[in-house]
Amino acid sequence: SQTIHQWPATLVQPVGSPLSLECTVEGTSNPNLYWYRQAAGRGLQLLFYSVGIGQISSEVPQNLSASRPQDRQFILSSKKLLLSDSGFYLCAWSYGYGRDTEAFFGQGTRLTVV
Amino acid sequence: GDSVTQMEGPVTLSEEAFLTINCTYTATGYPSLFWYVQYPGEGLQLLLKATKADDKGSNKGFEATYRKETTSFHLEKGSVQVSDSAVYFCGGSGYSTLTFGKGTMLLVSP
Questions:
Q1: Cross-chain Cβ contact A98/B97 below 8 Å
Q2: Pairwise CB contact (< 8 Å): B98 & A110
């Protein structure tokens, strides 16, 4: 069966520090991968998605970047965190392009920038 | 681009009340539609889905029917429980990405 792992679960980082959140998927090949952010009291904002190794699409301009060094690994990074980067970050995967594909989510990372 | 609009919350109900959360989707073509549920501090879990017009998704007493004319996918439950308190997200699968609404918080009191 397929599983998705996201870590860490919680993170407190000072302003200006770097960030690296990692997400891995097991049990499937060539998944679409997604990073979402959920700010307090707000909905899900798609940050990045990837349809293959090295292929990253950014949905919003911001202080963050994403990379996909391996087929089932998706990393969210920042060189210098801002207070506004605080939020709940969710990694997700789906089977690929198509109408019928639902997303499977990790447990999320609660990031607090202080 | 694709967009999902769902009613804003919070929706506050008493136990055993009827629930409706409205959702409409704007996209090129006819996407698959989903409802996800998020319990506090957790990720999203798929609640139900429908892949074509007139499909009805159902799970745990929740239902939603894909209405082609309005691309709507309203979530309903005949009798809510305290344990249904959570945030509900409507979403759609287009040809490239998954798009979600802003979420609706449901609070059910005993």
A1: no
A2: no
Q: How far is CA A102 from the centre of its chain?
A: 16
Per-residue pLDDT of A39-78, as tens digits, reads 766 678 889 989 899 999 888 867 899 999 999 999 999 9
Contacts of B2 by beta carbon, 8 Å cutoff, 6+ apart = B25, B26, B27, B28, B31, B92, B94, B97, B99
Nearest to B44 among A6, A49, A90 (CB): A90
Q: Are A77 and A66 in contact (CB under 8 A)?
A: yes
**Residue A97, pLDDT score:** 61
Picking from B13, B16, B91, B83, the residue whose alpha carbon sits closest to that of residue B47 is B91
Tokens linked to B13? 């109900």
Closest partner residue to A99 among B31, B97, B99, by Cβ? Answer: B31
* Partner-chain contact B43 A107, CB within 8 Å: yes
